[in-house]
Amino acid sequence: MSDSSISQGAAITLNKLTKRYGDATAVDAIDLNAEPGEFLTLLGPSGSGKTTTLNMIAGFVDVTEGEILVDGKPVYALPPHKRNMGMVFQHYALFPHMSVGDNVAYPLRQRRLPKSERGRLVADALNKVGLANLSHRMPRQLSGGQQQRVALARAIVYSPRVLLMDEPLGALDKKLRDSLQLEIKRIHAELGTTFVYVTHDQDEALVLSDRIAVFNQGKIEQVGSAQDLYERPSTIFVAQFVGESSLFHGLAVDHGAGKGVLSSDRTLHAHRGDARTGAPAALVVRPERIRVQSIDGTAPSGNAVRGRILQEIYLGNSRKLEVELGDGSKVLVRESAGDVTANRPGDLVWLTFRAEDAVVLTSNESPDRPQAADDHVPVFASH
Amino acid sequence: MRKPAARMWKGALWLFCALVALWLAAPSLIVIPLSLTDKPSFSFPPTGWSTRWYTNFFQDPSWVGALASSLQVGALVAVVATIAGTAAAAALTRSAFRGQQTVKAILLAPMIAPVIVVAVGLYALFLRTNLLGTTLGFVIAHSVLALPFVIIPVTASLNGFDRRLESAAAICGANRWTTFRQVTLPLVAPGVISGALFAFVTSFDEVVLSLFIQSPYLQTLPVKMYASVTRDTDPTIAAAATLILGLTTVLTLTTTFYIARRNRVR
Fold it and tell me: Rounded mean pLDDT of A183-209?
């Protein structure tokens, strides 16, 4: 709302950034960049290296190899207090011996701003987070959500060009998380600051981010928009970590312009895929793209797999079915409330899906069951 | 059926505790009536009351001088031991280095090492370095004894301190020294203050070391009292003891209340 605080965000570039602790590699030569003003989320399970990466950007953790550039300039020589970044921590990290106002004014005090200027900027920042009249309270008198707003105000009060957030909503309950997500999104839009946001919560990442970098075991699996990750996952890990996926295991085969997955009893087709022919692979489909059809009718054409419904989970706006396939593996099917079929747990069913909704990806793990026998010749279903 | 029995046991427990408390405190408290006697010798229970031994204390330059020396040495020890002890506690809690446990053990050793041994060693050392009977000598000797009493509470405070606050201060633009002054120190202040108090009291009532390093020109109050009790049994010594008791009690209570209030405000 205030014109003076609009700052242009900085560009951040990570080049082959690596962090090793003894023999353990926490972050493994990652390349990543954030555009000025972008909301970039580092998403991954715990121990995947996302927080270490954030702490290296902040300067709290030394870089083993590689470099961090902010607006093209390396920052390795700068200690955290000279990097001029804002940061919000998971457990707020408010100074308990200072009032809300003094907490928010703290970065301004370090920058030796005159008192009058400080007062104005503090009021401004507290306004932005909706806590205009709590300036005199002590942190312990506030709720968790309010404390995190104060922490946010403290991080934006000096208009840093980079704002780092380390699971800032991790300690809050679901409702509060949802409303604060929207506020963070609004504040990002208002400020134009580059946000780097760490979370293990994929829903949060989807709501907030311009782009998401998915971390796994110290490496980045894929970087892209929420839509890219959901609709065009490039690895099985991404497919399973971002949203739900159903996997059909087998060996990759070529199929016209697309790819297929072959297993002992069937060949399934996908329009996309990068798995090497002959390698263990999985065909990945989102559960809502799969249809369930009673086994009694005529055998469906196209991609079809037989299975038995194990259980149904009622979710209000949809129902989820867990289906066991002939090879013993289990997949999920989601039927939205308007399209619920009459199939019940225990029923034998056909699962069908379109080739354009499927992608064939290399699987690192061996499939759940033995590979196709040697004598089995790839057979392509006719279209 | 159980209730009256429980009440009886509770009563017995109270009585027992009161007896133990009396047992612990009585020998100290007995100096108060002793100091207020009107006889020129120790008489208990007192037969008459008088404040003449207090007058005597404050009119005798050797007693007042000893009190002044004790206050001066105690204050200096509090400053020296608090600064050194806080720095040591910070180093011991913040960093991991080879031989850390050994360093810690050495720093805490004065608490368990027999004082008489330390005293003999210091005497030999001070004899060579001409520190016997000097304020500097007293401050050095007492600081060694006081150091563990600072390190222990400050270490406890630092262990309970959330180090993420230091990261938060750093990202706000505060360098390490500013962070320590503005964030860490105010939050571990209760530990530092108790440490300073312990250091002062350790110095203020130290006898054994002081007897070795005293000189006729520089005596602390306990040394003067010891000399006095071996020469004459004049109740002035009881007046001195009461003053020490009063001073340490007031100091302890103020600090306790101050820390309790701080914790409530937090």
Answer: 92
